[in-house]
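Q: Could you predict the 3D structure of Extracellular solute-binding protein?
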Amino acid sequence: MLKKAATAFQEKNPGVTVTVRAVPFANLLSTLRTQGASPGGPTIASIYDLWLPELVRDGLAAPAPADVAQDLSAGWPANLVEGVTKQGRPRGYPNEVDLYALNYNKKLFAEAGIAAPPKTWDELAATAAKLTKRDGGGGKVTQQGFGVITSWAAGVVHPWLSLVNSNGGALVDGSAPKLDDPKVQAATDLYAKLVKDGVTQPSMSNANANTTGPYLDNFVNGKTGMIIMANWWQSALKEAMGDRFADVGVAPIPVGPDGAASAPVSYSWLTMVNGKADQAKQDAAWKFLTYLNGPDSGQNGSSAMGDILVSMGILPSRTGDLSAHKAELSDPFLSVYVEQLPHARPFPAVLGGEEMSQAVQKHIENVVFGKETAKEAMDAAQREVAGILTKAGA
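A: Sure. Here are the predicted structure tokens for Extracellular solute-binding protein:
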């Protein structure tokens, strides 16, 4: 579909050639670093937004021209435009967007006599307790009320940070970490309470970026009542659950005692232009991206990029694409994510962001496995992240 859109653009713009090259995700960032400045290097790249600060620093992510910036402001949610803006200038077109919500098993809710998903942290804890089952002797937990992820940085940090955001907290303020803020520690206290009460089982938490492992298995098999997870895993659930996928419900992130509204974490992929390419190539690249992300390139008011993303079951970020694909995106699972999109807060893309995420992951896992108290974990994470961000910005 991307090649088809490129061919259509070339027909409208004689003399411009668009060549599509697939690079494995594990090699993508290193390819940009090593080939970006070479004459034959990529002019356009599709990247994970957490990489953006580094690529801007190194001159590889060009600032968008004024007409592109205007196009973004008119056609995308402001919070997503903010997520691709660095040093006061947008750096590309947001494409895929992912955000978090509460997923729950409606069948288990009905069996426990629970009428609706929790809206607050207190309701979350109470609901998790009702959903937890133990063996006949009252010992081993056979069904956990609320599941968390371990062993995968984004899977650990993003759901936890969605709770932090929904309690009025933040991971960073600019480049200053806020892990010692009571509103942040409260989310870690909540994790500690859920583990202590036995409604969250560390032994059921392991997962990787493909959601392979006990975390997915226990939710799929009705052994976990609730989780916080992103929209992109719908396809994994459908494949694993079959007809039982109809049991999956979706609701906004529960709001903490100091929060005003649900505020899930979001992150995105974007297409950027190589700032080290010659100016003629950069100009042609921005023109192609404007076409690819515009209403004249796709079907029924969608952009070609919107059509590509929806064909893969991925949530597009352009407002017009969401409207054009309303039918596909209005199923009970995805519709809640679409509704929450304006309230999402982009994961902070700062220099040192990946290392920061890994440090926070370590201390959250220490709380889950009983190695640190919530205060010890957040105090240690505050010190480590401050050092990481200072070093990265030096």
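Q: Anything worth pointing out?
A: The first helix runs from residue 2 to 12.
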